[in-house]
């Protein structure tokens, strides 16, 4: 056997290593942990971020956010200076009823988006609606008075 072959594992040795790794992760304590991790990532976290569109329509600034599966009472809106903050809190409860056990899991997911407004808006005239998973905020632009002086 040459020196080169001693330094490189054979296919059977590699298969054996992989089998040992598989067996390690199949052991009882780790199997439960891995199953829980798979469950978490398969559920997904739909609120880590949510898409927002910002555009003008006539004299209004329109902000639309897609929030499917969220109830209207889970949404909080706040205008702070030149920013609009959209906060969402989603409570998920999962119940499993079996022959000899009962389990209830609850998770709370929160997400916030802070959108910089391109210009001042009339906060008191702003209106929000929520229909079919889409939040729409409409606010008229503030009429900016010019500070330019005319020369007589």
TrEMBL record:
Domain SHSP: residue ranges: 43-152
InterPro entries to which the protein is assigned, alphabetical: A-crystallin/Hsp20_dom, HSP20-like_chaperone, Small_HSP
Gene3D superfamilies: 2.60.40.790
UniProt xrefs under SUPFAM superfamilies: HSP20-like chaperones (SSF49764)
Pfam families in the cross-refs: HSP20
Family: Belongs to the small heat shock protein (HSP20) family.
Protein name as annotated: Hsp20/alpha crystallin family protein
Naturally occurring in which organism (per UniProt): Ectobacillus antri
């Amino acid at each position: 056997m040459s020196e080169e072959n001693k330094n490189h594992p054979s296919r059977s040795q590699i298969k054996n290593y992989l089998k040992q790794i598989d067996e390690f992760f199949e052991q009882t304590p780790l199997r439960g942990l891995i199953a829980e991790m798979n469950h978490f990532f398969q559920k997904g976290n739909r609120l880590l971020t949510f898409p927002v569109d910002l555009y003008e329509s006539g004299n209004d600034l329109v902000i639309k956010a897609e929030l499917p599966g969220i109830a209207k009472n889970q949404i909080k809106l706040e205008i702070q200076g030149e920013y609009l903050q959209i906060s969402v809190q989603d409570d998920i409860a999962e119940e499993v009823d079996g022959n000899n056990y009962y389990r209830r899991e609850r998770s709370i997911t929160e997400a916030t988006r802070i959108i910089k407004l391109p210009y001042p808006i009339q906060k008191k005239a702003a209106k929000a609606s929520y229909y079919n998973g889409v939040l729409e905020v409409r606010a008229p632009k503030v009429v900016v008075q010019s500070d330019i002086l005319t020369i007589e």
